[in-house]
Structures are given as C-alpha cells and as structure tokens.
Design a protein that fits this description.
This protein is an alpha+beta fold. The chain folds into two domains: about 250 residues, FAD/NAD(P)-binding domain; about 160 residues, no CATH class. Helix content is about 30%, strand content about 25%. It has twelve helices and 22 strands. The strands form six sheets. Strands 19-16-13-14-15-12-20 form a seven-stranded antiparallel β-sheet. Strands 6-2-1-10-22 form a five-stranded parallel β-sheet, sandwiched between helices. The chain is elongated.
Amino acid sequence: MKKVCVIGGGPAGVMSAYAASLSGADVTIIERNPEILKKLMLTGNGKCNYSNADLSVESYSFDANHPFSNVIKEYDSTWLENLFLQNGMYTYVKDSLKYPRSEKAETVRDTLMDMLAKQKVSIITGKKVTSIKSSIDSDSVKVDNNSACEFTISFEDGSAMECDALIIATGGKAYPSTGSDGAGYRLAREAGHNVTFTYPVLTRLFTEDKDVLSLSGVRYKGRVSAYIDDKEVIEDEGEIQFTDKGLSGICVFNISRYLSKPIEEGASCFISVDFLPEKSDCELAEYLRKRLDLAGKDDIKVDALEDILSKMISAKIAGLIVEKLCGKNAGKVEISDDTVTKLVNLITDFKIKISAHDSFSAAQVTKGGVDISEVSETMESKLCKNLYFAGEVLDVDAKCGGYNLHWAFASGMKAGESAAK
C-alpha cells in the first residue's frame, strides 16, 4: 500500500488526504496546530461560504488556458455540493454563494472530520515540519522528474517520518494566527521550486485623505474602480465600508488583488467611487439641472444643495461632495452648467488616493506562492516526482465568494488522487 503524507491540515490538505485514501493509499495528515481545519472556522464570517454556483475560471488569477482551469472544470461546484450531500451535509445557495444549510462552519468541519474517520486517515497534530529530504539525494529533494523517490520528513522535536508521496498543503501567509506563516514556501524551495513574492489580498485599503476618513462608519452601495498610474485595471460593485483608516467591503477586497503589489512597488494607486452606478452621467446631469432650476435662478444655498443630494445618496457623502465643490466656508453655490458638470464628476468619479493595504494578519488570502508553471495539471511537481501541491501554497488566488475555498477543495482532490496512483 502506498504511503502518502500530507503536510497541512487545512481544507486543501484534508481533501487531499480524503482523496488519496479513497484511492487506496495509507494516508497521514501532519498539522502544526493542536487541531486541523482551524482557518476554515473563520470563512464566510463563520458561515463557511465553501463555493460559488457561478464558478467561472475567469475568477481566478491563472489564465483560462492554464491547465489548472481543467481542475476547476473537473471538480466544479456541483461536484463539491454532491460530495458534501453524500456525506450527510445539506447545503444551500444564496446569491450564488454556497453555504452549509446550518450556516455554521462547524458543520463543514465536522463533515470533513467524519469523511477522514471513515477512510481511517491518520492525523498527527502539534508537529512542526523542519525539512524534507528525498531518498535519491541526501542534500536536496530536487530530482529528475523521471526518477521516483521516497521522502523523509523531519520534525522540530527530532523525530522523522517516511512516505512514498508527499503533498504540501500548508496554505499561504494570510491569518498567521491560524498557523499560516508561509512555512510551505521554505519546503518548496528545498525541492528546487521558485516561490513568487507574496502580498496580502482580499483585504482593506488605506488612505491618508482626511476628508474621506471623516466618512468612517458609513456603508454605501456603489461601484469602485481601481487605477494604477492613471490606468483603470478593474472595477467591482457592492457595499463600500468607510473606516477610520480607509475602505473595506467585499468590492474593495476584490480590487485589492490588483493593487497590493503596485502599492508596495511605489506605483500611484487610487480608487474611483461611483455613488450612483445605476444612472448614466447624462441622466444624472439632467436630474440635477431640474432640481437646481427649481431651487433658484442664479444661486443656491449650500444647505439646500446638500438637501438635494442627501435625497439621492448618503447625507454624509452628500456633505463631503458639497464641501469638495464649494469649500468649507461657502454659503452659496452658483447655478450653472459648470456646477452640474462638477457635481456629476464628484458623484460618479470620486477619486481616493490609496496609500497602503492591510497586513497579512487581516487579509483573507495570499497572492503569490509556489510558481504554478512548475506544477502540472495533476498537481505534481515538474521538478520532483511524487511531490504534490494543493491550495493556497500555490500562486493562485481568486475574488471573494467561495472561489478560494473551492480551489483548496478542488486542487486537494486532484493532488490526493494523483499522489495515490
């Protein structure tokens, strides 16, 4: 019987172990924490948004032509839903997001634990891996891909374990409090792999604009567009949360995937907010002209203008827009086409300079990791036979909505099945 070891007891590692055991392997999970699936409990605000009914390949960082797209297509959202149902867990869909019917991450954890127990997967916790060695080269695990090898896994306490195939599913650097500290990258480098630079994504974006910071506590649905050196790179819609440091919310998290790296590299990054994305500029301009014409002939009091805008958008946002238009001490505003044009621009193209992003401790996902050009569609290393990768340790990330967790399950299933052959 083939002996398979999985380093990492997160969703990718657990699914890898389950798949390998289904294929007849003797499987052991090695987890540094006192228990497995710790990070899973945080997903979906504790409800565990495990997948998405609209599981498009375009939602991921790899190209649609990359072999990993076949992994997503083979192990799609329906496959995962059926797998959970076969193991006793009911699920449901809300706005394309898939959850356990209980809306509790504990249900997903318990289901996965039952699946492992049924397959008699061994679980070792509280064990920190320090190195991996191959049977072919005592100094390096890197070997010719045509040469099979066994592995020796060394632990911090001085003990060791051997296996025929090894799966690295240690996660990235996001939420280091759960044990995700990037340790898998060091193991990958021992195997000769390149690890691309890592950045925290699906996280908050910060600004030093005091006017914007004055909106702290405001939640407002709109459209956000990300710009790098004056070039638009992505847009998204949803609830924007203004905080004491900048911006949060799912739509902001999604565009952070495109801004984290440029921010660290010193590029000029800003966000444009459209507070009324459902209206065209022409429609908005026409409405404002009518409202201003009703308010007066030549000018309008600042308070009256704020009142007009506060019936269209948030009162706090309306106040800031009027302040940007007139200044802080203005009493009246001229009624003119120029005023209308400036108001439309402020409402639909409100620019916010982004100065930083939040840290790994608050990020949901890591961007960067093991170079995916060095990993095959079977999740096997192209540099080292019988070495496999799964989940966030790879340079794969996706937007919010269950896509990242689904990648963990799908890549884990593929890695486990492949490793057991």
